[in-house]
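Task 17 of the worksheet. Students: predict the tertiary structure of the chain below and write it out as structure tokens. Keep your answer in the requested format; marks are given for formatting as well as content.
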Amino acid sequence: MSRGLSLTQGIAGIAMTFLASAAPPASAQGTQATQGAYAQRYAAVCASCHGANGRSDMAGTPVLAGQHSFYAITQLFLFREGRRDNPAMSAVAKTMKDEDLRGFSEFIATLPAVPAPPPAAPPDAARMARGQALAQTHRCVICHGADLSGGQQVPRIAQQREDYLQMTLHGFRTGKRPGYTQAMTEALSGIPPEDLDTLAYYVARFPGTAAKPPGK
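Model answer:
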């Protein structure tokens, strides 16, 4: 796999190729052994930042619990190829072979969604209503689902960390955060920054069920 591939060559397609082409285990026992190996590697490499259960307590670090393997493998690929800018993640991902991208992403997909900790104060009702209206107006629910649980290459965003959501939304708006398409940049380019903060506030406190098992 060439490190020089451009985003226009279809990052989502490349990720799907990884999922399809890496040789699957021949049996359920083999699958369990593979998942067990990557569970141990996740605990050793990832859990200190992302949490043992996939719910991070570290500022600016995304929750992985409830994410989908297709989304996870694509993000690992972006870090490995230097398309996303995060020194810690790039240092980890650049050592990964294609089968590691698959192994880690499939283990992440086994982590069930974990509800956000109870807030220190009740959510601001007016701001929540504004955030819900923004999510409808800007069609967030069309791609991410009515329950914001995502699917396939679309991430779960329900009850994601607010600081990470803010950083991500502003990154897409300015074009600093890459995606596999321009959809997010185009969707957010005309939204005022303060509305992005309100969206992040709402999504982080999304009142829907957070314990839906992730799909691959």
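Marker's comment: Residues 28-45 form the longest helix (18 residues). Residues 1-9, 210-214 have pLDDT under 50 and may be disordered.
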